[in-house]
Amino acid sequence: MILKLHYLDRSRAMRVTWLLEHIGLPYELIPHKRQENMHAPDELKAIHPLGKAPLLEIDGKVMTESVAMVEWIIANHAPQLAPAANSPEYADYLQWLQFSESTAMIPMVLKLITSREPTPPQQSLAYADHEIAQVYGFIDQQLSDKRYIMGEQLTGADFALAFPLMMLNMVYQGKFAHIQRYLAELAQLSSWQKAMQIEQQVLQG
Ligand SMILES: N[C@@H](CCC(=O)N[C@@H](CS)C(=O)NCC(=O)O)C(=O)O
Asked: Which of 31, 83, 186, 191 could bond 202 through an S-S bridge, CB–CB 3.0 to 4.6 Å?
C-alpha cells in the first residue's frame, strides 16, 4: 500500500503527520506552501478539485478530511489508539473526533478570518469570542482531571483535538491552564516533536 500525504504549512495536515510518525507507518510527504493570501497553491487542485490540505492518497484514492484520515489510519493500522466499538468509552471517543473539526473549529476559523480584515466586523468578532470562551472553557474543564482527552491513554481523539488547541494559542496565547498543560504533555512525545520539525521544514523550505 502506498500512502502519499500532501502537506500544507500551518494546516490540519499536522494531525496526520503526527499520527503517521507516532505509529511509524511509512508514507511519502509532499510539501506545499501557502500563497501570500494564505490560500493553498493551485497545484493541489490537480490532486482534488477542492484544492485544500491535507490530502491523503491511498493507492491513488484521495481522502480530503483530516479527521477521517485519522480514523482510517487507526482503523487499518493502529487499532490500539481507539476504544473498542462495544466499550462504554466509544461514544465519547467518536464525539471528540467530530467535535474537533466542527464545534471547536467553527468559532476559531471565524475569529482568524475576521481578525485579518482591515476593519474587523465587530459583531462577528464578538460572536467568535463568546463561542471560543464557551467551547474552549468546556475543553479546559474536561482536561482538568485527565492526562489525555479520553483519560490516561493517548487516542485518535488527541490527534484530532490538538490542532484547534494550537490555533487557540495563535489568537489567545497561553489561555486556559489545563489546555496548556495538555499541550505541554503532548510536546514531550517524540512523534509530536517530529511533526513540528516537519512543519518547520515545510514552512522554511
Ligand atoms: N475539513 C477539512 C478542512 C480542509 C481545509 O480547510 N484545509 C485548509 C488548511 S487547514 C486549507 O487547505 N486552506 C487553504 C485554502 O483553502 O486554500 C479537513 O479537516 O481536512
From this structure: 31
Kindly report the number of other CB atoms within 10 A of residue 148's CB atom.
16
What is the grid cell recorded at 180? 496548556
Query: Beta strand pairing status for 28-32 and 3-8?
Result: parallel
Q: Are 17 and 5 in contact (CB under 8 A)?
A: yes
State the Rg of the chain over Cα: 17
29 backbone dihedrals φ, ψ, rounded to 5°:
-100, 125
Atom of ligand 1 nearest to the CA of 11: 10
The residue whose CB lies within 8 Å of the most ligand 1 atoms, and thus the one to mutate among 6, 11, 36, 98, is 11
What domains are defined for the chain?
Answer: 3-81+191-204 (3.40.30.10), 90-189 (1.20.1050.10)
For the Cβ of 8 lying below 6 angstroms from any atom of ligand 1, the answer is: yes
| The total number of residues written for the chain in this structure | 205
Q: Is 0.90 surpassed by the pTM of this model?
A: yes
